[in-house]
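Example record

Each entry pairs one chain with its bound ligand, phosphoenolpyruvate.
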Amino acid sequence: MRDLIYAANWKMNHSLAESRAYAARFLSLTEPRTNRSLWFFPPSVSLVATVEAFEARADIRVGAQDVHWEPKGAFTGATSIPLAQGAGAVGALVGHSERRHVFGETDAETGRKVKALLAAGLTPLLCVGEKIDERDAGRTDAVVKRQLLAGLEGVTPADLARVIIAYEPVWAIGTGRNATPSDAAAVHLGIRVALKGLGAPGRIPILYGGSVNRGNVLALLAEPDLDGVLVGGASLDPEGWAEIVGIGAGD
Ligand code: PEP
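Structure tokens for the complex follow.
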């Protein structure tokens, strides 16, 4: 049985107090399971509270939603990797579609972030995915490959083993319209081939994200090329998320 990763992206939700309350409730509803690990990506101001709340659970990791590649400097509003690390983060999302398409993050910037995270010993969770016009034009594989190669440019094969990839079609994020399991699996396979071409040793986890919920998670995870899910909306309440992380993960 393959290992599965369930990652929760809280986006701009959950204050300090709400993060603590969420964690207490989630912990009361779940137990660690073999072959399953959990990630939470709270807003940066709630990182410390979330890290502390989940400290006793070795199966739970906490990361930042975004980081800057520079360790310090005049970058108002940004979170550096040392700052995130000091708050207890052990990884970060990179190139989430909202960073790319709302805030204008470029492919080259994602590459700098991935390399800086790896150099600091943190796990980058690199997000890639096409927009609807790109899918309709038959450019999904080309766009995903371009984002993947740019995000991983200059990363050594040994370091590739420390990266997690998330395929998140932009048109599926927060829309209630998920990719079909077979469409997602086809893209995952393309990503796997590209990773092999980069010299990746072994199996790099590739998650699917985009309107995952309790009704579709089992069918998605039934695809052997999906190693887990990255979830926004459906991870925001502890009861619903506790239910989802129990689906598809055997003991
Ligand atoms: C996300 O934020 O990465 C995401 C996939 O959101 P949602 O699950 O709400 O589509």
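DSSP finds eleven helices and eight strands in the chain.
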